[in-house]
Design goal:
By secondary structure, the chain is an all-alpha fold. It has helices spanning 3-15, 20-39, 43-57, 64-71. It has one domain (3-71). It contains 4 helices and no strands.
């Protein structure tokens, strides 16, 4: 089963759950996993993300081609 099919199957299972406690546990688990993924970023990666968010919040954007040049 590919990733997309697995996601769909998981969504179907979640949609059939009627117990709010189980839904909350799933939500908590997914939030913890997301936080763990953020922690595994290097300091440089975190700094780059913060810089990019700051630039976007200030209306500063770069073209997609310029971005590709920077990351390659």
């Amino acid at each position: 089963m590919d990733l997309q099919s697995s996601k769909i199957e998981l969504a179907k299972l979640i949609l059939n759950i009627d117990n709010p406690k189980i839904i909350n546990k799933i939500r908590e688990f997914l939030q913890q996993e997301t936080q763990q993924q953020l922690i595994t970023l290097t300091a440089h990666e975190n700094k780059e993300i913060e810089l990019a968010l700051s630039m976007l919040n200030n209306g500063k954007r770069i073209s997609y081609n310029d971005f590709l040049k920077k990351v390659s």
